[in-house]
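assembly run, all chains below
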Amino acid sequence: MKSKLKLLLNSVAVFAALLAMWQGIIWAFAVPSYMLPSPWVVAKTFAMRLPDLWASTMISAEAAVGGLLASIVVGVLIALVFARSRWIRTMFYPYTILLQTVPIVAIAPLILMWVGQGILSVGVVAFIICLAPIIANTTQGLVSVDENLVQLFLMHNASQGQILRKLRLPHSLPYLFVGVRISSGIAVIGAITGELFAGSGQVGRGGIGYSILYAQTQVQTDYLFALVIAATVLGFTLFFAVMFFEWLALHHWHESAAESRADG
Amino acid sequence: MTTVPEVLFKGVSKRFAANAAPVLDGIDMSIERGEFVSIVGPSGCGKSTLLKLVAGLSACTSGEIAVNGMQPKNAREMVSFVFQDATLLPWRTVERNVALALELEGRTRDETAAAVAKLLELVGLAEVGKSYPRQLSGGMKMRVSIARALATRPRVLLMDEPFAALDEMTRDRMNEELLRLRGEQNWTVLFVTHSVAEAVFLSSRVVVLAPHPGRVAHEVVVDLPYPRTGETRESEAFDALVNKTSKLLREAYRG
Ligand SMILES: Nc1ncnc2c1ncn2[C@@H]1O[C@H](COP(=O)(O)OP(=O)(O)O)[C@@H](O)[C@H]1O
Ligand SMILES: [Mg+2]
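ok done. output:
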């Protein structure tokens, strides 16, 4: 408990030092506000334009969460197919790696062209960027089941459906969560990237990405900073929401999700 | 009419690929109902493979195995398997782990509840039914694994080094308990182990396998009376049998 408090105090101290440095640079080099607004100005803008920020964040959140959920559904289905045969796996696995290495900014315009402007295509960009970690981790979970356990199920004349439901799926749940955790971090990046290409709209009606573009053209550097903060908070929130669900689902039985009791 | 052996091996050979060397070759052996047969032999000589053949999890390349006169695949309902690792499902409580086999056979939770409670009582785990496997010690996990195997009321129990991962004290205690349970339920046991002392203590007969290919090198009849206790281990007769079996095992190693 004491060490946790100390850790918190240390983080706060680091944060304060960074703010002081930021302010110090502005004073020392007389940086104009349109290049680098002071922490105080950013804070004020953040507070004053909270309704706009909130609206933008909600739009981005919708696309990010939608893309993430879709990637979980589709990713698990693909993993189930991959887990069925080594043959399919070796044939198609390289393409999931490709999915991970293709720069999303390069394909976002294509997606917008095919799917059309709007939140759907933004969600699709988030979906694509989220997909690979889900597929990779869930497949890993489905195929890493202890062979002896499979044999135990077979000994008791279990059907393939029973082996899937009672063995492979629960076994792969912690693996799926590893994938979802990774994807939750990048879902927001996907959504904002999508929005950067998503064309026109008004501030307050577009997501964070669109608002960033708008603030840039208007040289509202303070608002740009506020948007960066909003995006960061959104990413964190999503990540911790996933952690919470992970804890909920796994803490009874999984080592990583709970402190293990010493056994003798 | 002569009685049907519980497990009968007739010229059993096994190779995993057509051009590979056989893992098991020409195994002939008859195990009668109620016998406790241990199999000892160096690692890699095919002990696990042998048990899997009896369980019908893998097929003989030549020869045949009959379990109570039936093909192993059709006799699965009367056979249970206990692995070296407890192989429990970590997401299930102890109770639900024990219930697994019954559940796979289509029995409902209500039907299994009474049976599970009785089994936990039997292995001395009545208190931890609601715990998860990660909260248990190695010995307790193995008890759960045994309770799970007993749930389907098997006639034949196949055990593949079930106590190998336990410390010696726990292992000795588990050995005694296994014999106590067998006294109550009278299964036929095929038990694989690395430990000659364990084999002699438990068995009515010890089979020594020689490697490359795995074949029966010797059989030692253990004529120590049941029930066996801690005192059995201190008897001269026990020591003599352990020494004799160890010597045969060393000879089998050398080939
Ligand atoms: N599924 C399998 N496919 C190919 N080779 C196997 C398989 N299972 C076991 N073997 C081989 O058969 C031999 C005997 O293995 P095993 O029965 O596990 O020995 P033991 O249990 O006596 O240590 C080993 O050389 C092992 O590599
Ligand atoms: Mg083995």
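Residues B 47-48, 160 surround magnesium ion (ligand 2) (CB under 6 Å).

Chain B has a mean pLDDT of 92.

not gonna interpret more than that til we talk
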